[in-house]
Amino acid sequence: MSFRAGFVALVGRPNVGKSTLLNALVGEKLSIVTPRPQTTRHRVLGLLNGPDYQIAFVDTPGLHLGAKRALNRAMNRTAAAALVDADLLVFVAEATRFTDEDAMALERVKASGLPTLAVVSKIDRMKRRDLLLPFIAELATRHEFAEILPLSAAKGVNVARLVELIAQRLPESEALYPLEQRTDRSIEFQIAETIREKLTLELVQELPYGIAVHIERLAEEEGQLVVDATIWVDRAGQKPIVIGARGERLKRVGRAARMELNSRLDKRLHLQLWVKVRDDWADNAEALRSLGLE
Q1: Of the segments 80-94, 107-121, 200-214, which one has the largest average pLDDT value?
Q2: 62 vs 102, 204, 267, CA distance in Å?
Q3: pTM of the model
């Protein structure tokens, strides 16, 4: 029996369900998920090992129009770079919704020349199921996809089928990573992203776009992980929004992040959060590099 392995990039516009799909495919939470567009800022690798395959899924930031800030442009570059390195693409489109940003992302897919599967996501949210087949038929006219698969990552519908379709199309190869490895992202990255997710969910519409989280210190002391993390905002007026009245909002964010990380990392965390201002960091290439975003 031959072994197959390769890189599979999940591609699409922001908020189309790529991160939820990655987590469903690998069976654990590797990418943070919120209702806010452009939550994913980094390339996140998730590994799935089968008896005769290893799939290296790459979750990418959503390809988006109107990238005016340096942060937006860096996210688009990250997503575009993932296409170059992939063996196979999975283009993710939301059921019955195809926008100008979907069209732009699909143009990048076409330009890559790579074999591509299409996923029609979020079918569990459809109010009118009779619109699904016409949408799939219309999507098929836009590109010669190897397959088009309706799917619900949240409900697990057709996730296993997608894995089968991917595995049979990978090149013959030895495993690319050790079989026990699940991601290429560090514990520091996972902690910072979990804090940012909880902050995004807490603030919802109030969330300033220019927020980043940086781990200042990570140490194991007396059987627990001690973490000092800084939340960066790019306007002085945003600091009290993040902290909240009497610091209650920041406490809730820290509590939610700590509870999830205790379970995910199987370690007790002592988490300390600070909020600091770095003016216009989202437009500053040097600041982006120092925060690991460039």
Answers
A1: 107-121
A2: 10, 19, 32
A3: 0.85
